[in-house]
Amino acid sequence: MDKIRLKKYAELIVKSGANPSPGQAVVIIAAPEQFEFTRMVAEECYRSGASQVVVNYTDMVLDKLAYLHQDEELLSELSPWDRARWQWISEKFPARIWLDSDDPDGMDGIDQEKYSRAFAKKVKEIKPFRNIIENRHQWCIAAVPGVEWAVKVFPECTPEDAVEKLWEAILEASRANGDPIANWDEHNKTVHARCAKLNALKFKTLHYKSSNGTDFTVGLMKEGIFCGAAETDLNGRVFNPNIPSEEVFTTPRKGEAEGVLVSTKPLSWQGTLIENFSIRFENGKAVEVKAEKGQTALEKMITIDENAGFLGECALIGKNSPINNQGILYYNTLFDENASCHVALGRGFDNCVEDYGKYSKEELEKLGVNDSVIHVDFMIGSDDLEITGTTYDGRVIKVFSDGEWSI
Predict the structure, then answer these.
(1) Cα–Cα–Cα angle for 56, 62, 68, nearest 5°?
(2) Residues in a beta bridge with 405
(3) Beta bridge partners of 55
(4) Continuous H helices in 146-221
(5) Are 22 and 90 in contact, with CB atoms under 8 Å apart?
(6) What is the pLDDT of residue 271?
(7) HSE (side-chain half, CA atoms, 13 Å) at 121
(8) What is the reported pTM?
(9) Contacts of 284 (CB under 8 A, 6+ apart)
(10) Given the DSSP bridges, would you call strands 311-316 and 342-346 parallel, antiparallel or unpaired?
(11) Coil, helix or strand at residue 231
């Protein structure tokens, strides 16, 4: 891939994505094979005035070996050095960048029950630190092709050609061709205008219906708002948390969800692929799951804590979104969720409550924001998806028709 294009992409991730303030530290999470691009991103961070750049390399192969061979008790512990790292993050509030290149099948073959128990214990120890930094720092998730991921997406290609082809697809989907920063300035205006239209309507419920079996109603908070693209943290710093991002999303009211949602794309969760699945909800909570592949992983996911089976997000994306029109199944949530309407199990977003900064965490939970150690998106958009909204003043409005916006 041409290095000039990659440098522009790195600049986009730093300036439009994480947008570090002068003197702020930055943490980059990446796979070892991405060291060259990671260096480009680090250099852009320093050019933007970062005081220091800390790189944490993570290796899925080593993670899998650990889950295959280590004792469960040891896997469940947050090591002293990891605890110190999270303590530093919760005190310094660095901007954080995750360069995702994970293999969608990278954790196949591990004991899912062992993994789920260990994962649940460890993330519970991390959660207090996450609560401290939530909405008080900038972050950005972007993608870099990994060889295994690229070959999964383009199995007909050689590894080298697959990586190059995935690079082209990522740059196109991320609006990183031409003038990437100008592209995102314009994109943010468009998404924010759509959010304003939806927020003016004040929906109380959304009903989803599709011929694949989806028939589902979810309740929304009166204080809730739709968000999308660029966000502003509680310190007034603007950032784009996801590159790419086509969604307009809100946090539903906990406990108000009834019916069945049928997935329309595979879900790769923690390196395990879950395919052709459905989830049935009663009184707001997932009570039954069915999957042709990954059944155990899905069952463990929704029970990882007491709130994992409740919803934390409802996101709306028309079927003619640029990513969906690429016709590529990425096997990666960052991209596949931006090609399709989706919902998320687990943690809700505080900033999807109007003037959320004036509420305590407990008050936000009382309003209906779900709290969990996970936030897992899965895709439900289809060519014939119908979404009908009922407003708080009793109007019934068609939001989606045949998989596309009606508003």
Answers:
(1) 140
(2) 400
(3) 28
(4) 147-153, 159-173, 180-201
(5) no
(6) 79
(7) 13
(8) 0.91
(9) 219, 253, 254, 255, 256, 257, 258, 310, 311
(10) antiparallel
(11) strand
